Every structure is written in C-alpha cells, then in structure tokens.
Prior knowledge:
Layout: E1 7-10, H1 16-29, E2 35-40, H2 43-52, E3 58-66, E4 69-76
Parallel strand pairs: 1-2
Antiparallel strand pairs: 2-4, 3-4
Helix pairs in contact: 1-2
Amino acid sequence: MKDKADYYLDFRGQITSMSLLELTELFREMGVGDVVEIVAEERQIVADIFKVLPAIFYELLDMEEQDDVHRIQIKKIKKYKAQNK
C-alpha cells in the first residue's frame, strides 16, 4: 500500500450492507486528507464501495488483490455530507 492509513476497516466475513453502512458513517466523520484502508474478501463489496461513495469526494490511492483478499486505500479529498432521508 502506498500510504499509511488513518483508518482501517476489515470487511472479511461481514454482511455487505452492514459493511457499506459502516464505511459511509466513517467516511462522513473523516477529515479531508485522511486515508482509509479497506480489506475485503468478496469482489462484490469492492464494487459496492465505489457505488456508495460519490467519486468527487475521494481519491483512489491504491488497490491490490492478493490471495483473494482485496485491499483498497481511499483518501478523502472533499468534505462529504450524506443526504438526509
């Protein structure tokens, strides 16, 4: 991985919807410039991450797959406020 992460989320063995909720909550609380590293086993979770986080709010720093484990580093580049329901 390129940078040392400020936050670390391990989604291995977790339910996808709960993982994505945890990520959006954390991303809202992160400061601009903070980096989160996400580890997941399922390729679908990786695809869903990019669906729930609007691309204008983050920069993809690194993404790798090794032994069926996906590691992603995302840097928050803009203040993010999720829409109220």
